[in-house]
Amino acid sequence: MEKKDIIQSFKDSLFTGLIALALFGPIVGLRTVSKGEGLFITPQWGVVFLLVGLCILGRFLININSARRKEFKIFSTLSSKFSSITEDKAKHFAITGILFAVVFPFLPFTDRYFMDVAIMILTYIMLGWGLNIVVGLAGLLDLGYVAFYAVGAYSYALIATTFGWSFWICLPLAGVFAAFFGILLGFPVLRLRGDYLAIVTLGFGEIIRIILINWYEVTNGPDGITGIPRPSFFGLPFKRSPDEGETSFHLFFNLEYSTMHRIIFLYYLILVLALITNYFTLKIRKLPVGRAWEALREDEIACKSLGVNPTNTKLTAFAIGAMFGGFAGSFFATRQAFISPESFTFIESAIIVAIVVLGGMGSQTGVVLASIFLIGITEMFRDLEQYRMIAFGGAMVLIMVFKPKGILANRKPTILMHGDKK
Amino acid sequence: MSNLLSVENLTMKFGGLTAIDDLSFDAKNNQITSIIGPNGAGKTTVFNCLTGFYKPTNGQMFLHKEDNKISLRKYTDFKIAYVAKVARTFQNIRLFPAMSVLENLLVAQHNELMVASGYSLFGLLNLKSYRDKEQLAVDKAKYWLDIIGLTHRADDNAGDLPYGDQRKLEIVRAMCIEPRLLCLDEPAAGLNPKESAELNKLLKFIKTEKQTGILLIEHDMSVVMGISDHVVVLNYGKKIFEGTADQTKNSKEVIEAYLGVDE
Questions:
Q1: Are B93 and B185 in contact (CB under 8 A)?
Q2: Is A389 helix (H, G, I), strand (E, B) or coil?
Q3: Of B53, B107, B111, the CB nearest to A291
């Protein structure tokens, strides 16, 4: 680097420092303190000079770096390496991932907290996979996906508390109810696309939440539903002391009682549910209806000209996507044993959409990576309290800058004529 | 030669604008009927009426099927292609760009495959009956790809093909629904002379081998005059001339309105 460049960048950093001084001087430097009967100004110039110094130094370093044209080179090589690994070895990656997920509860470092986070991540993975059908395959931007999650959770909770039916009966029922609501939402929005569709679905999500708050007689309003039955291990409940004439899990298998048993069972339950969602999506994508979804995403008019019925195609996408949302919802209800409308706010929808978009629309592995990344980041920065949303936002910006089409954005054809040569 | 399509007193008005004014013409089986005319003459509007994208203000369109005739007005939207078997291509290519060439051709066979897959149920169970049907669909796609010479690119994204190949792919995709009438909206637009010649060959093949009637909108006179059996000339929504290619070339009205005179 030439001497001229250094002087130039030094000047530039001094200028940056001047701006920083103008900004931080009044904002940070003059602190008002209320003492007794009035406000007093306490100057804290030390902090100001520290901040300004940091700005100057930072600017100088950036300048030097860009002069060498090495700016962010590490990031781009890292990300390209990363995607080439996953593209080549997608299958190995998936198998390793599943194996890891299976042995995860028995790893030495796994404690209660890790299990809870893992269950949460898996729930979001399942929701992401469910929404991927609607957004990734059919190209219908749904910002109200949490509505189906809520319908599933409430159907499960109401049926289970009213009739006392077991988890395995309530689960499909909750899915059916959610699918029904999917069709209900689908009908009015058939003609809408893009932004307009997004707005209506967003409204739909809010409508469901507000109904849940106000329909007090059925949903118990903002108080929520308590005492939702816990799932049992094929009829064996996870209780320390089972009721009369009942055997509990630990007695049946002759184990010492531990609360972890239930957590581990829940973990495997959501793992299986999520894997079913994934398997179903991978299968249906290769069927005519899956291809019609993708064709609809690509060009609706061309679809019509080829005799593809857009109404049925869109409604099946909404219904199937909603059904998996409903399954995830009933899992959520049985895990929490308590649900209230507060769990189904817009931010949940936003997170799920973010997972699908950041993962790369339509990519199943992408959803997994994005869920781990987004949920993991918010968990990792839990100590930062309210600032963790900044970490969340920062993570999203980083992905969008370096991978604008999502972490894994490659699409594999659903059928090959010449076999897998590459 | 029997009639395939008869258009009777077709009128289409958009508010105060009459895009098609009392148009009547026939298209025959195994013939290429061209519709030509200056820009804004209403050619594409005729297509949009025929293929159910617009509902005409007035008039009838009949598709003859053996002895009975079916009215196209009864069908809208996707049913034109599904039930009446009228296929079309578009002025601006409308492929599914992010899907592979083969997938494009399979989507065109959606309805048969949907039934074969038991509305996804047999497909999810991976029954042999469905797999066989899918193989048949792939074979059909391969048949058409062999004809246009794109078999080696079957697994590439349709959007990655060169422009001329995309045009041809759109035509064979429409042929995959086994149409009785194929409506082509400016298939030669943007093609070089060599590609135009290949297009002529393809259209002649479809006409003779597949016994499909073709309705063609085109500005490229080398295509129109080379392959048309019948030419309908429109100007301001009205039919100003109808006849064979040679008659059209020498008609005074057509030359004045559209073809132009040499200085």
A1: no
A2: helix
A3: B107
Q: Which domains does chain B have, with CATH numbers?
A: 1-5+25-54+61-85+179-263 (3.40.50.300), 94-178 (3.40.50.300)
Query: Which of B52, B81, B103 is nearest residue A414 as measured by Cβ atoms?
Result: B103
Tell me how far apart the alpha carbons of residues B107 and B84 are, in angstroms, rounded to a whole number: 18
pLDDT digits (tens, 9 = 90+) for B64-93: 877 778 888 888 788 888 888 889 999 899
d(CA A258, CA A251): 11
In which residue are the tokens 């931080």 written? A24
Give the best residue of B50, B102, B107 to mutate against chain A (max A CB count within 10 A). B107
Mutate to test the interface with B, among A283, A298, A300, A305 (most CBs of B within 10 A): A305
Which of A283, A299, A415 lies nearest to residue B103, judging by beta carbons? A415
Rounded-to-integer distance, Cα A299 and Cα A225, Å: 44
DSSP alpha helix (H) spans, chain B = 43-50, 79, 101-107, 110-116, 121-125, 128-148, 163-175, 193-209, 221-227, 245-250, 252-254
Give the pLDDT means over successive 10-residue stretches in chain A (422 positions): 76 87 83 79 83 87 70 56 58 82 83 89 94 91 93 93 87 94 89 86 93 90 87 75 72 77 89 93 90 92 91 92 95 92 90 88 86 83 74 78 77 78 46
B126 exposed, middle or buried (CB, 10 Å; 0-12, 13-18, 19+)?
Answer: exposed
> Residue A104: how many CB atoms within 10 A of its CB?
17
φ, ψ (nearest 5 deg) of residue A34 = -90, 120
Strands B32-36 and B230-235: parallel
In A237-338, the DSSP E strands lie at: none
Q: How far apart are CA B157 and CA A405, in angstroms?
A: 17
- Strands B213-217, B181-185: pairing kind: parallel
Cα–Cα distance for residue pair A399/A393, rounded to 1 Å: 10
pLDDT tens sequence across A32-82: 787 777 788 888 888 888 888 888 888 888 877 776 654 455 555 655 655
Chain B CB contacts of A292 under 8 Å are 107, 110, 114
Q: Residue B99: list chain A partners with CB under 8 A.
A: 291, 294-295, 298, 413
- Using DSSP, state whether A409 is helix, strand or coil: coil
Per-residue burial over A72-89, b = 16 or more CB atoms within 10 Å of its CB, e = otherwise: eeeeeeebeeebeebeee
Q: Which DSSP state fits B182?
A: E
Query: CA A308, A419, A81, A76: dihedral to nearest 10 degrees?
Result: -40
Model pLDDT, residue A71:
45
Compute the distance between CA of residue A82 and CA of residue A329 in angstroms, rounded to an integer. 33
Locate A418 and state its tokens: 């010449």
- In the block, tokens 């190209």 appear at A139
Q: pTM for the full model?
A: 0.81
Whole-angstrom distance, CA of residue A421 vs CA of residue A220: 59
Domain spans in chain A, listed from the N-terminal domain onward: 3-71, 79-402
